[in-house]
Specification:
This is DUF3857 domain-containing protein. The chain has twelve helices and 40 strands. It is an alpha+beta fold.
């Protein structure tokens, strides 16, 4: 049966009842006159496009000698502003493993402009590779302009029976109607979980006896088929300082539980249901086998390292050795993890490097364990029951006395005990194969400081000249070092030296760039030309490049929790010598603002003594995770702070 007809058949025949009119219907290839004439979306007039209709239908079918997972999709989109993004390109990720890849079949797509329509040609459909995604089927629509409607259907055929994943009802575009149907044999047991704050418009389920039939005429019966639908779905708005949108976007996800063998066409496979099953699986699996190489690493560690008596200093020496020995290849996982081969190649994936680190620490008599975690971008791991697909990263959890250090040797700029920002995602699972695994909070490094000390003096020409010294600790220093590594030192200095009009920076120097256990220091000379209005001179004292340069919170309300990743402190000390050039007319107000509780405090103090002005600005953010209810307080806090740093000036007058 052709794909378009099959989708229509599903639409018209499933769940036929007195309430069947509740489902919205769409006929492929026949956009309505109102859809073609639509100028904007009434429920979101700011939207540059809207999904008019979409349907997903996932099921299993016999294809030749094999059972395949089939995913059929129908989607229709109205475009109001074609310049804001490339709406004419659709990407379909294709999972692949061991040389086998999912395939897109039965594709049909059209672009409609009024009474004109153009079909997507076969040469506009091609397979490409994206670094963070893998294989992708790309479809390029012709003649996409303002007012176009694009529509497509496709069937994805997958040999990976348990890559059911799920369906996103919510996306970056608003949607008028989205429905998802899925038919799963009773032999396949999945947990399906709804995420997000949007409510289901429809939630129905029936059981059909005609489930699927294998080539050897073995019928699988008892197949529940379920319909979920949502309507008038708002676009998901990404907000500053938040964890992955995967934690909040409205969707349904599936995780495999168990496969029985009543049909005889596939051997039994039981998925982990308790953490003790996971512990056993990992211990006996590939990762567990790679954790049994401490003898190999002991042979490769220098005697001078193994002879260090102090446990912490020995651990730091091993961390530095592994960190310098390896170059991270940029991948979070590899299909075949071999720590010995990676050690010889001096290059590896995240698990290859960090499993090597664990082996080396254990070879030195230290208590190091594997921690599984999910990166910030990957979303929070599920805690209700084991879901291994939620983890995509590994680090080492090292315990010395009563202190636990999380270590990741993939980043050459990260000092001991400071794991990359991408890993700061609430908690991870420590794999203790003797006592049982357990959840452990992922606590960020605490001392993240941007410190500036500046001394400037008025010159006879009315400008100010002086010296500035900066020190960057913790994640702030790590980010700067990573930027320098990526851009080169020369490019970084050029960027830092051209920040504000009227401010000229010279002789910019960076100290301790390669001494990652020390703060990154920056020193430069500065010349400042103040603003003159009549006989008044306006000097903006915070001329340096501040850590926070604008209020990140500009929305009227916040829908999702705020997560900065780590606490931080900004301290700016400024000494201004007016000499015999200026006298003070007016200083900004000294004041202190606080967040509720002990979550944060910002203070600024101006002191004028004779011909000198001393300024101290100090901002602390003690907490780094906030609920949406704290949004208004944070908005006011950062708003006032930016006003102090960017808008308030010292008023002077020439003597």
């Amino acid at each position: 049966m052709p794909l378009r007809i099959k989708l229509l058949f599903v639409l018209l025949s499933l769940f036929s009842s007195a309430n069947s009119q509740e489902r919205q219907k769409a006929v492929f290839g026949k956009p309505t006159e109102s859809e073609l004439a639509m100028k904007f979306y009434e429920k979101d007039t700011t939207a540059n496009a809207v999904v008019l209709y979409e349907q997903g239908y996932y099921y299993y079918a016999a294809v030749g000698d094999y059972i395949k997972l089939i995913k059929e999709v129908h989607r229709k989109i109205k475009i109001f502003d074609s310049q804001t993004r490339d709406y004419g390109t659709v990407e379909i990720p294709l999972f692949s493993s061991d040389g086998t890849r999912e395939k897109v079949k039965g594709f049909s797509a059209w672009t409609y402009n009024g009474n004109t329509k153009r079909k997507v040609s076969s040469d506009a459909i091609f397979i490409t590779s994206e670094p963070e995604i893998g294989s992708v089927c790309k479809i390029v629509f012709p003649n996409v302009t303002d007012g176009s409607v694009i529509e497509y259907v496709y069937k994805l055929e997958s040999p990976f029976l348990f890559n059911f994943y799920g369906w996103h009802f919510q996306d970056e575009l608003p949607k008028i109607y989205s429905e998802f149907l899925f038919k799963i044999p009773l032999e396949y047991q999945f947990e399906n979980i709804l995420y997000g704050n949007q409510s289901l418009y429809l939630n129905k389920s029936e059981v059909t006896d005609d489930c699927l039939q294998t080539k050897v005429n073995t019928m699988i019966v008892g197949c529940p088929i379920t319909l979920y639908a949502m309507k008038d779905i708002p676009a998901f708005q990404q907000e500053d300082y938040m964890l992955s949108s995967k934690n909040y976007i409205s969707r349904v996800e599936f995780e495999p539980k168990e496969l029985f063998t009543s049909t005889g066409w596939r051997r039994s496979r039981k998925f982990t249901k308790e953490w003790k099953d996971v512990d056993k699986f990992i211990k006996k699996g590939e990762m567990g086998s790679q954790l049994k190489n401490s003898k190999y690493f002991k042979e490769n560690l220098a005697d001078s390292i193994l002879a260090i008596a102090d446990d912490l200093q020995r651990a730091k020496a091993i961390y530095t050795y592994i960190q310098n020995h390896y170059t991270w290849d940029g991948t979070f996982y590899s299909s075949e993890t071999e720590v010995k081969d990676a050690f010889d190649d001096k290059k590896g994936s995240v698990p290859e490097i960090n499993l090597s680190l664990i082996n080396a620490l254990e070879a030195a008599g230290l208590d190091a364990k594997l921690m599984l975690l999910s990166t910030r971008q990957n979303g929070l791991p599920t805690t209700l029951y084991p879901v291994m697909t939620k983890f995509n990263y590994t680090v080492a959890a090292l315990k010395i006395a009563d202190q636990t250090y999380l270590l990741d040797a993939t980043d050459k700029q990260a000092p001991f005990g400071l794991i990359p920002f991408r890993t700061l995602n609430v908690q991870g699972r420590v794999m203790d194969f003797k006592k049982g695994s357990y959840w452990m909070p992922i606590e960020p490094f605490k001392q993240n400081i941007h410190y500036v000390n500046a001394q400037i003096i008025a010159t006879d020409d009315g400008n100010f000249k002086g010296k500035v010294s900066q020190a960057n600790y913790g994640y702030i220093g790590l980010k700067k070092r990573s930027t320098i590594e990526e851009k080169t030192l020369e490019a970084y200095i050029k960027t830092e030296g051209n920040d504000k009009a009227g401010v000229e920076i010279q002789e910019y120097q960076v100290e301790d760039l390669n001494s990652i256990e020390k703060p990154l220091k920056e020193n430069y000379n500065v010349t400042i030309e103040p603003e003159m209005v009549g006989d008044k001179v306006f000097l903006y004292p915070f001329f340096n490049k501040t850590y926070i340069s604008e209020n990140p919170f500009k929305l009227n309300e916040r829908n999702y929790p705020i997560d900065f990743g780590f606490p931080f402190t900004n301290t700016y000390l400024l000494s201004i010598d007016l000499g015999n050039v200026y006298e003070t007319i007016q200083l900004p107000e000294s004041r202190t603002i606080k967040l509720p509780g002990d979550d944060g405090e910002c203070s600024v103090t101006y002191i004028s003594e004779g011909n000198k002005i001393n300024i101290r600005f100090n901002m602390k953010l003690n907490e780094y995770r906030f609920p949406p209810a704290a949004y208004q307080s944070l908005k006011e806090y950062f708003g006032t702070m930016i006003t102090i740093l960017k808008e308030e000036s010292i008023v002077l007058k020439k003597i």
